[in-house]
Amino acid sequence: MDMKTKIAELTSETMKKLWPEAAGLPEAEELRGLLAVPPDPAMGDYAFPCFRLAKALRMGPPKIAEALCAGWDREETASVQAVNGYMNFFLNRENFTAEIMTDLAEKGEYYAASDMGKGKTVCLDYSSINIAKRFHIGHLSTTVLGNSLKRIYDFLGYKTVGINHLGDWGTQFGKMICAYKHWGDKAKVEAGGVDEMTRLYVRFGVEAKDHPELEDEGRAWFKKIEDGDPEALEIFTWFKDVTLKDAMRVYDILDVHFDSYAGESFYNDKMQPVIDLLREKNLLTQSEGAWVVDLTEDKMPPCLILKKDGATLYATRDLAAAKYRQDTYHFDKCLYVVAYQQDLHFRQVFRVLEKMGYDWAKDCVHVAFGMVSLGGEALSTRDGVIVYLDDLLNQAIAKAAGIIDEKSPGLENKEEIARQIGVGAVVYTTLSANRIKDIDYPCDKSEYTDEDGTPRIRYSIDWEKALNFDGETGPYVQYTHARCCSVLRKAADWDLPAPDWSALTDDEAQTLLRLISRFPDVVKEAADKYEPSMITRAVTDIAQAFNKYYYEHRILDGEPAQAAARVALTRAAAQQIKAGLRLIGIEAPERM
User: Fold this and answer.
1) Residue 91: beta bridge partners?
2) pLDDT digits (tens, 9 = 90+) for 98-122
3) Residue 286 forms beta bridges with which residues?
4) How far is CA 214 from the centre of its chain?
5) Helices in 54-170 by DSSP H: which ranges?
6) Which among 468, 531, 543 has a CA at the least distance from the CA of 141?
7) Helix, strand, or coil (residue 25)
8) Helix (H, G, I), strand (E, B) or coil at 64
9) 138-164 pLDDT, tens per residue?
10) Is the pLDDT of residue 456 over 70?
């Protein structure tokens, strides 16, 4: 039993003993949720706000706190103190240490794991790159956020289904085919891959400014894709294969995997039943030639289902996708990890699902995140305001390799460790702040002329500013893990006796143990709030606490039994740092 649960149960017992006839008193499970961690350790390890009991007991919170403290008789677990309506708990250090260290020794890296999700399924829609475009930094947040959430839910016992809902449908693909038919060359596309397709797409944007009729031609080609035209489908499928081959290189570097690559085109034959049901339920109305679902009562604009020409839209496909996922995976929750700019879109889609009579619509969640920009400018492939993700990752790996060459020239397996550190720096930076926060990469701009003679601007990230390896960073946490591993390698040569847990009652050890003991709650809260940054913060706090302990205490000195306790604490820290890093998609090198 974790200490927070134990405190809650003992407090519940004390309440019932003091006020056996009182109604409305919280049970232990609710009490656990009410327990807080005071901002100042001098105020206790946990605190219970007695304001919650004032109405039921018809007493002031200060008097309730005093009564609870007077009736508390579990000093072997914690001593208590009443302060301004709070019941503050001070854990018995030696008993707390013995309990948590025994638990840590048994569970190891899975100390914070749980089976709370057993029998439940979570679908996660993330990354969702666009076909015929290179993987750029605009897809970094959704990719690493979704990957981390998938790992978190796996860790908590859920069955997860990672879905890469490929952007392989829409007018832009008609424009791509139009560009290819006008200016493309098959040999060049085969050789240049996505870069050549991007060049064609950018050229289409430039040419269409002077020749607006190209827009109509692009729309016509997309309609051919929808209608199953052989030539259009052949080119479209070819573009898709080339794009996925390019994207897999980036996914491999990030160690990101999916269970499904069913993109928008997958639902082409699944939209008509949705449209038919909308008509059957009298939800479709005509507006200026298009078919929409009126959401006026919900204070939202109408949800567009069909264009004037009968073409479908994002909402049509997302409705079909949601129904397919429920029918196929029977999800308990379906998460859409998409930027906050799409908030209205998802509110409309989820509301339409409700109107269609699907009670599982309440289990669909838009996990929004902030936008990415370059030097204050919004990303745009067409306008060339873009930096590709593999460039960012390769630059980070190169920078890590340079630091290793300077500080650890004799390190074995340098290339692999440089990859782990470089990728870790990028992922940690992305997941270190609240997901809703915007990210603006510092960059330099330079003018150039492309091969078609068009003046362009090149955007280059200022890598020194963008990739910070000092302070609270991924490499710092990774280095702490490597430091722990170094101590454990030395300790492996020692014949240590059973640990003396009294050696871990000092302030530094207790701070570290308390952070570790709270880690399971952090993981669960990160899942509840869809917020991996909570784990990033927690694992950084553990790393900082260990480093302070490391500098204040000589781990392998002194009495053997006390050294054994310090080694066990070091092992526990290493295990939880590794587990935390794994949950946010970062590897933990044993040597750096």
Assistant:
1) 78
2) 999 999 999 999 999 999 999 999 9
3) 291
4) 40
5) 54-57, 61-71, 93-107, 140-155
6) 531
7) coil
8) helix
9) 899 999 999 999 999 999 999 999 999
10) no
Q: Are 54 and 61 in contact (CB under 8 A)?
A: yes
Residue 262, CA distances (Å) to 71, 167, 171, 177 in order = 61, 10, 19, 21
Query: In the chain, what are the domains?
Result: 3-91 (3.30.1360.70)
CA gap 559, 551 in Å, rounded: 18
pLDDT digits (tens, 9 = 90+) for 504-543: 999 999 999 999 999 999 999 999 999 999 999 999 999 9
3-state secondary structure 169-205: CCHHHHHHHHHHHHHCCHHHHHHHHHHHHHHHHHHHH
At residue 552, the 3 state secondary structure works out as helix
- What is the Rg, in whole angstroms, of the alpha carbon atoms belonging to the chain? 29
Tokens of 326: 């429920």
Residue 153 is encoded by which pair of tokens?
A: 């839910």
CB atoms within 10 A of CB 489: 11
Question: CA-to-CA distance for 285 and 222, rounded, in angstroms?
Answer: 25
pLDDT in tens, 546-564: 999 999 999 999 899 999 9
Answer whether residue 374 shows pLDDT above 80: no
Query: Are residues 218 and 175 in contact, defined by beta-carbon separation less than 8 angstroms?
Result: yes
Query: Residue 434, Cβ neighbours under 10 Å: how many?
Result: 13
Nearest CA among 107, 49, 74, 26 for reference residue 516: 107
Rounded distance between C-alpha atoms, residue 429 and residue 517, angstroms: 25
Q: Which two tokens stand for residue 382?
A: 């067409």
Alpha-carbon distance of 466 to 401, in angstroms, equals 17
CA–CA dist 266, 243 (Å, integer): 16
- Cα(285)–Cα(182) distance, integer angstroms: 39
Separation of alpha carbons 548 and 553, rounded Å: 9
Round to whole Å and give the CA distance between 247 and 243: 6
